[in-house]
Amino acid sequence: MTLNSVTEDFIAQLRATLPEAAFREVMPSYLEEPRGRWKGRAGVLVAPGSTEEAAAVVRACAEASVPLVPYGGGTGLVGGQLSPEGPVPVLLSLERMRAVRGVWPEENVMVVEAGAILQDIHAEAEAVDRLFPLSLAAKGSARIGGNLATNAGGVNVLRYGNARDLCLGLEAVLPDGTIWHGLKRLRKDNTGYDLRNLLIGSEGTLGVITAAALKLFPKPAGEGTALMVVDSPEAALGLLSMARDHMGEGVSAFELMHRAGLEFLAETMPDMRLPFAEPPEWFVLIDIGLAKGLDPAAALEALFVEAAEAGLVSDGMIAQSEAQRQEFWEVRETIPEANRRIGAIGSHDISLPLSAVPGFIDGGNAALKELGPFRINCFGHLGDGNLHYNVFPPKGEARDGYTGQRDAIKRLVHDLVHEMDGSVSAEHGIGRLKVDDLERYGDPAKLAAMRAIKAALDPKGILNPGAILRLPPDGN
Fold first, then answer.
1. Fewer beta carbons within 10 angstroms: which end of the chain, N or C?
2. Is there a contact between 437 and 424 (Cβ–Cβ < 8 Å)?
3. Cβ 366 vs Cβ 141: under 8 Å
């Protein structure tokens, strides 16, 4: 398998095939990723306006053995959206394919093109009194094709599932340029191998998603949000169990946060209003959505009373208005930006069996203390076992003085996760950042099957080479 870089002749061929509107200037923003770990390259940037145009680009790449990297909103955190090595690729942006092809409120289904921005999908669902529950901090720029390609998670996985659970059908361009017309609105379709679930999470290595049929949900009649102070992650797990006993699937989100998150917010955004005068060691954000006739505030109050009697919570506050709900959520959703401003030495997107979470936090914190005087901001989606376990330099110091320890920190954290039967990638994917980790911790049978699937569907290896699976030794 040998790949070729984009040439002037190849670009001329594309220009003869596609309208001028399909071509974009390769601005620096297309070649950067949020954490600044890599710089991408692109010989040409093509933004097709239709599935047929996307197929023409993929077909041309297949015929010329030119690599192609699909590009959504550029918000990925593991480098899957850019190519820093190997032959110079075509960058295929879905930004012009943003149409809503149809909405069926009575079916709870919406069909959208892959370039649709997540926040716009939320608005389209709201317009027909429905909910599309996938929600991320980057919802204002993330595109649904990328969300599906990475099987994005977010804050509502506890109730509604990952992106994979929110998709009924796909339309996609396969590596030879063939269009797969799998855009069905069916809840049941038991007709052989499930290509939809194969492409979701494949990070653009098996096909280019061009449209999706998404599940919508009735909007909860009443919503409520509370912050509750807990003594420990163990107490938080007890509170989660009690909350689900009280409200069942009415618990939409259950977010664990540590004092460090509030300290980072105070340090980097001093004008931001914080909920506690004195930051507690641990606290949780609980978000609920209940059916008609049920009072969310009363339900949260009853939960707090029972949890306090059981010794699980010591303080808390229940949002008294929609504005206060948004203030509570702003704290949670702004923590990643505070982390970025502080400058993490290492950021870890991990998942664990729920009962293993407290032991991991204790074990990881103790082991890192032996390694150096680090600050740790551990927070995340406790309801589905997904933690963002991020390691920072001591206050007043820059991460540059500790980058030499990044690999040792990652190895320590990921070894412990693996020992506890967890995953080193919970919701961000593998991309290029975690190729080594996949090889180190992945099951050999699974890796062999993945390589066989890649070879069968993409024998020339043109789609996003180097993402998920390592490039061959010659770099081609």
1. N
2. yes
3. no
Which tokens is 229 given?
């102070």
For residues 27 and 35, what is the distance between their CA atoms, to the nearest angstrom?
A: 18
Tell me if 172 sits within 8 A of 199, measured CB to CB.
yes
Exposed (0-12), middle (13-18) or buried (19+): which is 395, by Cβ within 10 Å? exposed
| Rounded Cα–Cα distance for residues 435 and 470 (Å) | 6
Q: What is the Cα–Cα distance from 185 to 171, expressed in whole angstroms?
A: 12
Of 231, 202, 237, give the one whose Cα is nearest residue 352.
237
CA 351 to chain centre: 13
What size, in residues, is the chain?
476
> 375: which DSSP letter?
E
Report the SS3 class of residue 204. coil
Task: Report the candidate in 100, 107, 104 with the shortest Cα–Cα distance to residue 211.
Answer: 100
Strands 130-131 and 109-113: unpaired
d(CA 319, CA 302): 14
Q: How many other CB atoms sit within 10 Å of the CB of residue 474?
A: 9
Looking at this protein, which amino acid is placed at residue 427?
Answer: E
Distance CA 295, CA 289 (A): 10
375-381 vs 386-392, strand pairing mode: antiparallel
**What's the pTM?**
0.92
**In terms of DSSP H, where are the helices of 107-208?**
118-127, 144-149, 157-160, 195-199
Compute the half-sphere exposure of residue 391: CA atoms within 13 Å on the CB side of its CA: 27
Q: How many CA atoms lie within 13 A of 83 on its CB side?
A: 33
Per 3-state DSSP, the chain is made up of helix, strand and coil in percentages (nearest 5) of 40, 20, 40
Sort 29 into a burial class: Cβ within 10 Å, 0-12 / 13-18 / 19+: exposed
* Residue 454 falls in which region: left (phi positive, over 0), alpha (psi -120 to 50) or beta: alpha
